[in-house]
Specification:
Number of strands: 8
Largest sheet: 8 strands, parallel
Oligomer: single chain
Order of helices and strands: HEHEHHEHEEHEHHHEHEHHH
CATH class: Alpha Beta
Family: Belongs to the PdxS/SNZ family.
CATH architecture: Alpha-Beta Barrel
Organism: Caldisericum exile (strain DSM 21853 / NBRC 104410 / AZM16c01)
Bound molecules: ribulose-5-phosphate
Low-confidence stretches: none
InterPro entries: Aldolase_TIM, PdxS/SNZ, PdxS/SNZ_N, RibuloseP-bd_barrel
Protein name: Pyridoxal 5'-phosphate synthase subunit PdxS
Pathway: Cofactor biosynthesis; pyridoxal 5'-phosphate biosynthesis
Radius of gyration: 18 Å
Shape: globular
Strand content: 5-15%
Mean pLDDT: 94
Length: 295
């Protein structure tokens, strides 16, 4: 058993078990319980949801381990937590307390602008963000067991999540239509290892699950991302910045499950109360964009 614990197969398999589900950002035990009861497949423990990180500014770091442990004790579903990009000691701390999954996330303030964490050194699986195929494959080459397209977190605006998912899917289709010999130049242009590019051609998808994140605020948003090819969704601000988080969380779970059934999506979208207000991405400066942090 020891031999396979922490193996690529086990770590990627854990991510696959979350397929088709919603992973919700939570900042307290109370929110974690709401998420679990609403049908989330996992929760992401963090100090502040992305909309508040964006609004309050300052340096955003890994959550207090005491908060993470309290959430782990309160729910039976897997618990994830975020570390700053490149901050391998925050990752060591989370692994030490027995976290189920680590998100090396651009939502927190990067600790290293050049290097991501060497995720092969950890037994715990990692999820990382990507805006395109090259970025996704670089993170997988570093040991990520799950990818999420980045979107623009904390905006309640789906436009960047759509852009990034379409980009990844388009680039995969392009590779599928290439000959073997063309893959070498493509790998160079993507900045990704040739072995992974070949694997994408063979599989017709990423070798790990790819969820959508950043800006999902309604059941229809979640279903849109699923129809565009996401394996599942992450939702943070859209739920806990709305007037009725419990009802919205349940509706987003239903819409993710029945993403290709507009009648169900219509039904669960009724009377959800006030939505998160949201931000026009064009009003953000380059410095305010989280998606561009470390590629
Ligand atoms: O980083 C994340 C995924 O790991 C966040 O959960 C996600 O991006 C949340 O964004 P939003 O608050 O816009 O839903």
């Amino acid at each position: 058993m020891e031999e396979i614990f922490g193996s690529v197969k086990v770590k990627r398999g854990l991510a696959q078990m979350l397929k088709g589900g919603v992973i919700m950002d939570v900042t307290s035990v109370e929110q974690a319980k709401i998420a679990e009861e609403a049908g989330a497949v996992a929760v992401m423990a963090l100090e502040k949801i992305p909309a508040d990180i964006r609004a309050q500014g300052g340096v955003a770091r890994m959550a207090d381990p005491a908060l993470v442990k309290a959430i782990m004790n309160a729910v039976s579903i897997p618990v994830m937590a975020k570390v700053r990009i490149g901050h391998f000691v925050e990752a060591q701390v989370l692994e030490a307390i027995g976290i189920d999954f680590i998100d090396e996330s651009e939502v927190l303030t990067p600790a290293d602008e050049t290097h991501h964490i060497d995720k092969w050194k950890f037994k715990v699986p990692f999820v990382c963000g990507a805006r395109n195929l090259g970025e996704a494959l670089r993170r997988i080459a570093e040991g990520a067991s799950m990818i999420r397209t980045k979107g623009e977190p904390g905006t309640g605006n789906i436009v960047e999540a759509v852009r990034h998912m379409r980009m990844v899917m388009d680039e995969i289709r392009k590779i599928q239509n290439m000959s073997e010999e063309e893959l070498y130049v493509e790998a160079k242009e993507l900045g990704a290892p040739i072995e992974l590019v070949k694997e994408v051609k063979e599989l017709g998808r990423l070798p790990v699950v790819n969820f959508a994140a950043g800006g999902i605020a309604t059941p229809a948003d979640a279903a849109l991302m699923m129809q565009l090819g996401a394996d599942g969704v992450f939702v943070g601000s859209g739920i806990f910045k709305s007037s009725n988080p419990r009802k919205r969380a349940e509706a987003i779970v239903a819409a993710t499950t029945y993403f290709d059934d507009p009648k169900i999506i219509a039904k669960v979208s009724e009377e959800l109360g006030e939505e998160m207000r949201g931000i026009d991405i064009r009003k953000l400066t380059e410095d305010e964009l989280m998606q561009v942090r470390s590629e």
